[in-house]
Amino acid sequence: MPRSFTAVIEHDPASGLYVGSVPGLPGAHSQGATLEELRDNLREVIDLVLEELHSRGEDAEPSTFVGLQQIAVGP
């Protein structure tokens, strides 16, 4: 049965790449020139992380996405 994981995605203006990570799944991060490429890369890395966990007899449960907050600081 397929599982869904939530990825946090940012755009890095210095490199022009989209950067994504999956909270709660250590090592699950990647980048891509387009959102589609990033999605494919994240899917591949999630599969690899899950395979590694499975080989050690461990499992990963997707975390529950709660939301995003913007925090203002400074004057």
Major beta sheet, specifics? 3 strands, antiparallel
- Give the integer mean of the pLDDT values: 92
Number of strands: 3
Helix content class: 25-40%
Order of helices and strands: EEEH
Span of the ends, CA to CA = 50 Å
Biggest sheet strand order reads: 1-2-3
What fraction strand? 15-25%
Radius of gyration: 14 Å
Shape call: globular
Number of helices: 1
Would you tell me the structural class of the helices and strands? alpha+beta
Oligomer: single chain
Folded structure, characterized:
The chain has 75 residues and is an alpha+beta fold. 28% of the residues lie in helices and 19% in strands. Strands 1-2-3 form a three-stranded antiparallel β-sheet, covered by helices on one side. A hairpin with a 7-residue loop joins strand 2 and strand 3 (29-32). The longest helix has 21 residues, at 35-55. The mean pLDDT is 92.
Keywords:
3-stranded antiparallel β-sheet; 1 helix; alpha+beta; 75 residues; 3 strands
Task: Give a short synopsis of this structure.
28% of the residues lie in helices and 19% in strands. It is built from 1 helix and 3 strands.
